[in-house]
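Troubleshooting: if your tokenizer reports a length mismatch, compare your output against this known-good record of 344 residues.
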Amino acid sequence: MDTHIKYMERCIELASEGIGNTYPNPMVGCVIVHNNKIIGEGSHQQYGCNHAEVNAINSVVDENILKESTLYVNLEPCNHYGKTPPCTKLILEKGIKNVIIGSKDPNSHVLGGGISTLISNGCNVEYGIMKDECDLLNKRFFTYHNQKRPYIILKWAESKDGYISPKKSNRNKGDIFWISNEESRKMSHYFRSQEHSILVGVQTVIDDDPELTTRLVEGNNPKRIVLDPNNRIPLNSKVLSNESETIIFSSTKNLELNIDNEVINQFDLDSILESLFKRGIQSIIVEGGAYTIQKFIDSDKWDCIRIFKSEKNLKEGLVAPKYEIDKLEFKLVGDNKFYEIFKN
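Known-good structure output:
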């Protein structure tokens, strides 16, 4: 079992390198072992490209020893045709008899079918090795398939005295007042690069005119989502640029927009999350404003909360979302306190 853990840990390490790049596919790593030595390894690096098992098998120099080898993978091999052929087919073609798996795939196209195919064709299969760690790695993928909604992260920065921005009368329109420090802002952009989408309410667009990109770090820009029930978004907003795909949710069609504008008849979080699920969006990071974030908190629709707390005092302004953090652990990011809370 210890040997299994050693190689599964390597699978997880390889898989995690693909974060933010594999949507809508999960993160998968694979190693192939012969006589207690890794002879091949690979990961799924981008949607539409080879799966981890294919890359690992292709990296083996002497294919003749595959029949005497063991394949480790953190997620059940696929058993269906999608962008690529099923990995189970290649495993069987190469004569690999021993397969060790971390998580079962929750995707209805797989859902144990990969394991069943391998076993029915004579493979020795073990699964559930480091299951919790493997499930956690793909928490977005599992939430999407099991709960039929995206994985939801709520993020904001607040002052020491609990405000997320100064009074509007104390700031120029369109100017962003930075509560968090530069190091925290870079960290926030890195977090954006990991997620499938980023969501704000229209008031944040009106007040701050954000780009909602990953411009401070290297990484993919998430899809941008704006909740605009009454069609108030300014047409010169930066969020409407072509830096990334943008989706506007509104109660009625905004005829002035020439981008993706979806009408939600029952404008509530359940309907919005259902639409995002149907669009295949596996995760969202909600970055504002306070009203929108509070809606998610009050509806208990979140999986993770991230808060940057500054040493600045504003004395007055827009009150931060209400979530008790005083007794929670934090880590320092420069002079900011960073809190990360997971629901489960």
